[in-house]
Amino acid sequence: MSLENIPTTERGSVNVIIETPKGTQNKYIYEPRLKVYKLKKVLPMGMVFPFDFGFIPNTTGGDGDPLDVLVIMEEPAFTGCLVQCRLLGVLKAMQKERTGSPFRNDRFIAVANESRLYKNIQKISDLNRDLVHELKTFFIDYNAREGKKFTPIGWSDAAVAMKMIQAAVNE
Questions:
Q1: For 3-164, CATH number?
Q2: pTM above 0.90, yes or no
Q3: DSSP per residue over 42-99, as a string?
Q4: Which sequence spans correspond to the domains of the chain?
Q5: Residue 99 burial (CB count, 10 A)
Q6: Using one digit for the tens of pLDDT, what is the confidence trace for 89-140?
């Protein structure tokens, strides 16, 4: 098994594959069948991803896709880049598509291990309170524009987040 298929490392870091870099309107997704990244959609004018957005490989979330992670670091990485991260916590949430039943679609928040600017951030509460609110609002608005309802349940710490990831690992 290659490193990019391992969800966590022996030091407690989480491996994240970046799909959508910070500052872009383009939302990319990995298409495993074709083994390429594909343009999924373009966000409306003025709306961009606040930080890199990716997934934890070899996991499955409530939506059937790998677990989603927002990676905080200074500069955007590139699509397909493996970034080892320190978990800060998780925004637990329910999501409802235009039709169908609600399901869990949590958003994990992490800091890149190599970040210099954010190296002292250890938990969600270390982040600026306005930033935390804006991240939650981004996910609500992002989904609303797609006709989906994203309902935050609350924040949990890194220990809870790691247990959730371990429970979502594909055996």
A1: 3.90.80.10
A2: yes
A3: EPPTT---SSEEEE-TTB--TTSSPPEEEEE-SS---TT-EEEEEEEEEEEEEEE-SS
A4: 3-164
A5: 6
A6: 999 999 998 888 999 999 999 999 999 999 999 999 999 999 999 999 999 9
